[in-house]
Write a sequence for this structure.
């Protein structure tokens, strides 16, 4: 008999963006119901947001500490908490819930500093609860297809990885105005030392890792703040070298006019190449040497089971961002119910730490004039 | 305070396609919760399906008649029922619930015959309940944008409407095998007299009507069953003439290899043209005479409020088929809560009847060698 | 040893469009040199145009009659004449040269009336010279590829042919102004009874015939003059029925805002479908049932010899309109040098007559309220 | 009165690729006629090639030295020579003709070593003749449009330049076989030290320079020979820094499966972005902050005079690679006839030297582990 998991949320009150995304993602496949929350650090807004969302007033908390304690004490306490705060709060909130034995589903990047990330790992080691990081782009069916093709050798040994994630919304100094997203995302105290590199560069990096799985040897990064007065980078690009000899390029930018949320990855191997683009996510271009180019589609001919497994509607009925996000929630639900297995695709804390090392290495490399820098550890 | 509407469902048990779609659509924006069902005419499958979906066994019914009666009698009875059966059952089921005073959300086409459709209208007139038809493609944000642009005169007086809805899944005689979808959709007794014309042609027709709102004067249709032995048309195309002098072309096909679910509409007026394609639904091409072509995007610059109102995530984060469908459910929820208003966009029974007249006229025209035929009434 | 053919030209003086195209096409592959001309009916403009083009003054003629006579009399007279006048002059000019025993390369459509076309056939029968019609779009390599795939059965028996050729340059009544092209192309006395149907509809029709080769049984056409006061159709569309049971749709429009020269053809058979678009002519989409979609490219893998034979540069180096046109000239040169062979692809006078029958039938059908009409003969 | 310039050619005999391209380019706009040649270092092949091309036997030379001397001595000697040999011969051949006072039109890259390039500059200084380098991609109309938009400030101060030129034809070790192109292009003795960086990277670099005109401060390059045993790089990528603070990325690869001749450039400024792709060259994407994206087309609305000036046919009639190449020849013809002017767009020897410095700097940087390296001088 079907039983929804009980979900709490920290952050995501009125006016937030990513909280609503998590709530829809949790709901799409009916695996979770939202029953508790500390939705805002502002008590009034927290209560109003909870009421709007149908959370009983008794389970709308003024602070995440109180929530962790109270929910852990209830017989019908939450099975998991979603953390959708600004980055600098990920660590203390995750710590509180992990220590209370409650599973954590956390937005990316893992934390705002590498130190926090490493500390969180120690917390997690002593906890009975699981930690999941919502690198949602790895939930897209055609990303799964790409991963399967690369890992099964369809394109041969990988030679080149080209990934970019570019936007234009920070092309002008809008943080000077009232844009709430721009405000915290360009403030090092809340966002972390990285700007574009942390906000979207980590998504790009995780996507390469998710698809290829090749360990990075070193990177040579050049980070820039093109908008005058901006405190963090708004454009970051770098050369990559993998341990197996492959090379790569990663570019994250929030000052690329004409691009909305343009995450694109291309992978070239000895026998073939792949191209996927987030803004048209139901397609995957495949070029095998000596053959005509093919356009694989979600649900279409030539697209395999790993994609079909995370698909809801037939070919030609486009799925989008929310469905990809929902897949991450589904996989977390499955791991919560059945125990985490080695082949779980839900993103781990270790992958979150790798992402933090990536940000850290990119910033160090850039400060050292794009010197080759390893991710460390 | 937020309160979800209580939803029941008829049809949509294990193995069905469109039932699951309706359930996700109802859930995405948290407006409905599924609490009752007569999910299959097979009692065992009905019960198993209900259990899987978390419907309490006491509200899993063996027949829709029983369900209508029982739910109408409960204090906490359902606010609405979703009808997701094969077409020929739409009429009796809708009748039962409307007569029980329960709002109906029904999959398209309205019924399997024009007679049933007209009879249903009489039923609805005497009912206190509302009727909604889920022509989901009119829920896409960029379809709303197109509608707004056409109706506000942005492209001038409309001259030409070109719509096509083409698929390839019936290119071979698969109804001879075990494909459940192919089986009932090609059986006139369950699907109605039309094949492609009823299954997808009505979507195409509704889309033209939704966007342009111009009454059709007459059509000249040529319907074909290309696959030997097929009992209904698998390809239907026709010339259109509108009362205001505009002309058009509509093509529905299920034997067009290389096309998955390719619904595409183009509208040309005195000053500009528009193009929208369902398989890449977050874009709308706009060509204004004397200007460069523009690519409007959901959430992007130049796209207006009518689209934004039915949008969940920012530009560049693609929404898809399920979100468009969810918008239809949201509008039904709003109408159920607040009373149907003249500007409600939820599809009406009258539009369903227009769709049935369209199928009927197309079949009559084709039988008369593509003679010009009006929709009647 | 290489020897260029000697070419003359009638029409194509200063200010004309298509004359310059023919001259470049004749020159690209070095098969022709332009040595004579009656470039304008205005003597002064004729002489000035000839001087500009490097034609010796002694071979710049004041009239085509004089030119035909003089060139036929010379030992080093022209091998062929290109006719690039307005449509109504095609017949008398072609007649003069054919009667003088000089090969004719003529722009389309064949003539301005069907009577002229039939008369021209009689002239041609008694002439020793060859006649070539420059339906240039059949010169594109990927059109050749499509033809080869259809005719060799790659997509199975053809069921559906969808062709459109749409432009927007006549969306407003520009013939009222000084646009020379708009002026004669919308004047029935010079252009013929058809507007869009004759100017571009014939190209679309010829393309279907070139690729598929299926004889048309009948058509049901609806022609419209959307621009007030226009004397010819500016939009023409029609249902098609082929003798073998295939169906089709053809649309020609010059009032479709947002389209420049958008000739597009799709062909669907029992086993696969093809799509080609003139504005991006180096690609051909192929969809075979049960396989992923393929994108064939000029010179790329999977594209065969018939395309390679009419290709100049490697894959990825785009060829365009002029190269496709040049191929028609090359094939004419080959036929002139070596005699016309049964497998020559240069467009014949008979195909030109078929095109005139098509225009004639479309106009007759439209006048009879889109009655089914055969091409006759 | 029109008079064609007399052209000679060195290299480009039977079996060569680029020679035929130059000949068509020279012919398209009727500015040149080919009258002399030293088409091959193999005397027999030289004579046979000349005969095929209609070059009089008396002007088919066995060596370029002889040709330079003989043509300089003739009253009707050639106005210019096209050099289409492998790279290492550019220098001696160009030297011979410049010293003979004959204008030179030379394929890129300028030479095979930087030393040769600098020596050639000295030769050119003492010569009365002009030198033109055929960086043909700068002849495309929409590249001209991009240049005009960037230089006139339409996109604001440039921040980011992203260029890539990728192919797949060297993904496997085909130089081991009989491929003539692969053979010399991967041989350092004939091609120069650079592989992909010299063959196509220089095109990419020149395109950035042509459009933006910003001087490069330094680059950090990583060159790779992915194919075992290959003597030159087959993949080269690098970070760029411009003197004005802009940043960039350049990637040249011949081992990117699925790409034929995929040269693509994107430029982002403070107010807008541009994107152009060689394989679909008649389009230019423009994204201005706060406006919908626009698709400019060759000849279309919003595309200006600088593009129109190098255009032959109307919008929607695609021009391609050969037409872009022809524009370079036209501009050379104009400079030869009227004297080179400061605003001539024909590519200069100095730009060729810049290209050689680019190759040289990239190789030096890569050998020094991608150390930041300036172009020098």
């Amino acid at each position: 008999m079907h039983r929804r998991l009980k979900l709490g949320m920290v952050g995501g009150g009125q006016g937030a963006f990513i909280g609503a995304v998590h709530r829809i993602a949790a709901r799409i496949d009916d695996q979770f119901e939202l029953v508790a929350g500390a939705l805002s650090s502002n008590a009034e807004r927290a209560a109003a947001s909870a009421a709007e969302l149908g959370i009983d007033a008794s389970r709308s908390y003024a602070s995440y500490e109180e929530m962790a304690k109270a929910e852990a004490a209830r017989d019908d306490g939450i099975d998991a908490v979603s953390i959708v705060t600004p980055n600098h709060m990920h660590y203390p909130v995750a710590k509180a819930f992990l220590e209370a034995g409650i599973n954590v589903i956390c937005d990316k990047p893992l934390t705002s500093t590498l130190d926090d990330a490493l500390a969180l790992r120690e917390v997690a080691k002593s906890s009975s609860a699981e930690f999941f990081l919502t690198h949602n782009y790895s939930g897209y069916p055609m990303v799964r297809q790409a991963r399967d093709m690369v890992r099964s050798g369809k394109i041969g040994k990988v030679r080149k990885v080209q990934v970019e994630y570019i936007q234009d919304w920070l092309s002008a100094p809008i943080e000077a105005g009232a844009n709430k997203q721009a405000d915290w995302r360009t403030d090092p105290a809340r966002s972390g030392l990285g700007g574009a590199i942390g906000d979207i560069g980590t998504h790009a990096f995780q996507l390469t890792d998710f698809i290829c799985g090749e360990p990075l040897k070193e990177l040579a990064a050049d980070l820039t703040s093109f908008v005058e007065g901006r405190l963090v980078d708004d454009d970051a690009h770098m050369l990559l070298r993998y341990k197996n000899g492959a090379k790569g390029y990663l570019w994250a930018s929030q000052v690329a006019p004409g691009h909305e949320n343009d995450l694109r990855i291309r992978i070239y191997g000895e026998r073939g190449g792949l191209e996927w683009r987030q803004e048209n996510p139901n397609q995957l271009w495949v070029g095998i040497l000596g053959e005509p180019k093919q356009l694989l589609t979600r649900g279409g001919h030539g697209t395999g089971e790993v994609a079909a497994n995370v698909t809801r509607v037939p070919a030609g009925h486009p799925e989008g961002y929310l469905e990809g996000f929902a897949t991450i929630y589904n996989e977390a639900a499955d791991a919560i119910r059945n125990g985490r297995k080695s082949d779980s695709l839900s993103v781990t804390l270790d992958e979150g730490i790798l992402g933090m090392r990536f940000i850290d290495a990119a910033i160090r490399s850039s400060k050292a004039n794009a010197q080759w820098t390893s991710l460390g550890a």
Notes: Residues 141-316+348-367 of chain C form a domain with the Dihydrodipicolinate Reductase; domain 2 fold (CATH 3.30.360.10). Residues 349-367 of chain C form the longest helix (19 residues). The first strand of chain C starts at residue 5 and ends at 10. The interface with chain D takes residues 1-4, 17, 20-21, 23-24, 27-30, 51-54, 167, 259-262, 278-282, 297, 299-300, 312-323 of chain C (CB under 8 Å).
